[in-house]
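Ticket #4471: structure export looks truncated?
Reporter: QA, pipeline team
Priority: medium

Steps to reproduce: submit the single chain below to the structure queue and open the exported record.
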Amino acid sequence: MMAEANIKIVVEYDGTAYAGWQIQQNQTTIQGMLVEAVEKVTGETVNLIGAGRTDAGVHALGQVANFRIDHRLDPARYRDALNYYLPKDIRVKSSEEVPPAFHARFDAVYRRYRYLVAGDSSAIFRNQRYHCPFELNIGRLQEAAAVVEGEHDFAPFCVVASRQESNECHVYHSRWTRIGPLLVYEVRANRFLHSMVRSLVGSMLNLAAVDPDRNSLNLTLDRFKDIIGATTDERVAFTAPAHGLYLVSVGYQAKDSAHEILR
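Actual output as written to the record:
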């Protein structure tokens, strides 16, 4: 009998039409579409493990997933075979066999997210970036982003029902930059809580509003520091829209030559 192979795939998707990554009853999801594609290619139903559970409307440039299967298809050919059955807004970028113990979620040492903010509305890119309707102070955004770095309890930036026993995350990188007409937020951490990035972005946009009347949360930089620096049951209420958020990449430590490091 052939040994079961552990297949790792890297997936890009536009999340506009989907109810998020995770399979849900009576909903169209990214995970569900991939499982269906594997079944069409191999005739087998697999347990597909994703590195991150992106919400409805969130996009990905480098989502990582793995599944175990007893099938003789060359691992590298899963990419094209799955793409044949997938819709055009979901693309498998690569496929390979990895060690049996590899787990896309539990072996990840970091996830990297990006949020795009535009000053002008767009008919073409309306589902790929958030049109912020007020002027922003980029210097204040950069100051706020620096506060996020380090190890903190991010419970105030997590959906209450999804809070865990420990809500601490270690943020390795947090920075706003201007790229052409866009303001781009890049953040990398060992883990993220449910809606954490979108809540952080929403908070920073509020405190960076040039017109104080646009600051619906009445946030100041000092108040933002207090929220991040203290354990609190307070919930930051403003969450930036999903369509500006991207899961960019997932990083792993090398365990042998077949186990890729993503930086």
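Status: closed, not a bug. The export was complete when the record was re-opened. Leaving a note from the reviewer for reference: The domain at 5-106 is CATH 3.30.70.580 (Alpha-Beta Plaits).
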